[in-house]
Amino acid sequence: MRAGDGGMTPAPSSEGGHGKRRAGDTVFLGLSVGAGAFVIALVTLIGVFLLMQAIPALGKNEANFLTSSEWTPGGEHPRFGIASMLWVTVSSSVIALLLAVPLGVGVALFLTQYAPPWLQQPAAALVDLLAAVPSIVYGLWGALYFGFFIRDIGLQQFLNRALGWIPIFETPPGAAEVTSASTIFIIGIVLAIMILPIITALSREVFAQTPVTHKEGALALGATKWEMIRTAVLPFGKPGVISAAMLGLGRALGETVAVMLIVSALAPGAPWSFSLFTGGETFASRIANNAGEFDTPQKTGAYLAAGLVLFLLTFVVNAIARVVIERRKAFSE
């Protein structure tokens, strides 16, 4: 019997079913370790495969792989680099993050702190429904409607006129004004909509776990509802929001189909700039767009080298997210 609970709750027995629990624990431990080892081995093998395939191509590359924006992987003098792909991938993902995090946190706070109980679940399900929409639907929507909508309302033109002195908002090289509906800026907005459910769902779960004593303590000291959120809910949920943002960033970095359909690829030899109002290709979209060129080991190795960089990029982002989650776990205990 446990002391202090009135003798009504039996203490865990060290006999009887102890042997069965041990057998069950042993089987579960073996399955868990096997599953974990399988995932680690799979990720390691993918990384090793990409590295082994990329090394021969990188050895023949006559351009700087990290700083060049050329992409001519074939022929006797291959020259290829990832500078433009890295810029388009990172810039579009950062735009998505800057838009999705404040909106996702705002929706999560509304659902957990302000919405009436009868509205919380339907509204949360509606937001989660965005995650079930296939990326090809987002791509078609962005290419056929949303891109032209953003162009016609003049948002890109306004940013170009107001902030054109900043390189990322300047007019694209060779263009008199911003007129394209297939830009990095537009795909950033579409990616923000795609990662919004991830950030909202995780933030909602974290905010809902804020200890009631923290919230009631703040209210008891005379804090308003917003002051209670600012001093109790947001500090408690901050690590979770950061980890949600990192997971959303990982999704944005690897998105392929929507980027392929919306952003226009630059012509070979076209001048390149930091402007967000021009086209380009991410790592994933360039590999997918040019899959037909995998006809020689040299070309295949060049694309796999780009894939290796994307692999490392997403690995680092997810590793950061896991570190933040572990810190939150320690904070909650």
What's this entry about, in short?
With about 325 residues, the chain is mainly α. It contains eleven helices and two strands.
What can you tell me about this protein's structure?
This protein is an all-alpha fold. It is 69% helix and 1% strand. It is built from 11 helices and 2 strands. It has a two-stranded antiparallel sheet.
**Element order, helices and strands?**
HEEHHHHHHHHHH
Q: Count of DSSP helices? A: 11
Average of per-residue pLDDT values: 85
Helix content: 55-70%
Low-pLDDT segments: 1-17
Topology:
Layout: H1 18-60, E1 71-72, E2 79-80, H2 83-114, H3 117-129, H4 135-153, H5 155-163, H6 184-208, H7 212-220, H8 225-254, H9 257-262, H10 283-289, H11 297-332
Antiparallel strand pairs: 1-2
Tags for this entry?
1% strand, single chain, two-stranded antiparallel ribbon, disordered N terminus
